[in-house]
Amino acid sequence: MRASLSLAALYAAATASAFQGFNYGSTFTDGKAKAQSDFESEFKTAASLEGTNGAFTSARLYTMVQGGSTNDPISAIPAAISTKTTLLLGLWASAGDAAFANELEALKKTVSQYGSQLNGLVAGISVGSEDLYRHSPTGIANGEFSGAEPSTLVKYFEQVREVIKNSPLSSAPIGHVDTWTAWVNGSNKAVIDACDWIGMDAYPYFEDTKPNSISDGKDRWAEALAATQGAVGGKPVWVTETGWPVSGKTVGSAVPSLENAKKFWNDVGCPMFGKTNVWWYTFQDSSPTTPNPSFGVIGSTLTTKPLYDLSCDNVSSSSSASASASSTNTASASASTQASSAVSASATATATATATGGSGGGSGGGSSTGRPGTNGTVSVPTTGPTVVPGSSATTTTFSVAVLAGAIALAML
Fold first, then answer.
1. How open is the CA angle 141-204-180, to the nearest 5 degrees?
2. Span 192-211, pLDDT tens digits
3. Neighbours of 399 (CB within 10 A)
4. CA 249/CA 374 separation, integer angstroms
5. What is the CATH number of the domain that holds 241?
6. Angle 295-299-305 from CA coordinates, rounded to 5°
7. pLDDT, tens digit (0-9, with 9 covering 90-100), for 123-154
């Protein structure tokens, strides 16, 4: 009997636990490109953060291209191999076909140079980041980068699948990361159809068209997640960016502070960790300068002591909207309808703050919406995007061989 499980579902089922990590940029806030040693230091520090039980061992990447090069693989990849950090690979898709060709070339080189060393380390591959938001009327009105239309992203999906065919990455699930308002926009359905998984970015802090104080954060988050799940036809939803700033400007009723960042971590993060794939925004975004707002869980110096308590021991899993964060649940139609009305809300981290708080992936892997870069700059590189390493909620790695076995069993 032929199983009806999708490749992405098989991949998820074979993984012992959800991936858990942070977003990281390819440059520091002064524009200096990170070297392999820089990424290694960040990954090791993230995996040793006090109060986390070593859970943050995965990395989300915005680009395959090393800063300062045309199409060399990002140095976060060998750093991840040496530290056993799992990766959500990313290809920057908002700079046109020529730039994406460099992303593809860097992906080819990655497969050629590292081959089987990538086995068990790749959570998935993201084709682009918030390109649909940037291409939308809201993104254009907010002065975002050019973005990419759905047909362009679908073309890029096909190109990525061709590159990884018959390689150690051939079984990696491919998806796209965008703001939750992009996912509930019916004009983007072709991208949903092309995805094995859906990456959702959602920031209640930026939702100034609704009540968005920290006490409202959990509800805004639940609405965003439910709307996304209701729009994507049962495909797994991965949380690729969310967080609350520790310092910076007030947006609507949302006030950055250590206390509020901790509450959002408790209310939204803790109940998801270990159950849903999550890459939190962010590990460090203030080296050497601090952006406004700043989301980092550590300050300007690498340290295992976070700015606020990251432990979840005393947090009830029933206290958060993450009960609905399970990627196996679908949202109610009413929740989807309710949240889809927010498509017209501003989706930027500029003075007009957004309903999605969308981040772009500039050369520093930072936000194109004005949100601080993930340890990076906001400008888009001429050579390609940025990488954002995160961490995983599990120390158990996934082997491509295991996936192949699971697929074989499913076909019986």
1. 60
2. 999 999 999 999 999 999 99
3. 12
4. 18
5. 3.20.20.80
6. 110
7. 999 999 999 999 998 888 877 778 999 999 99
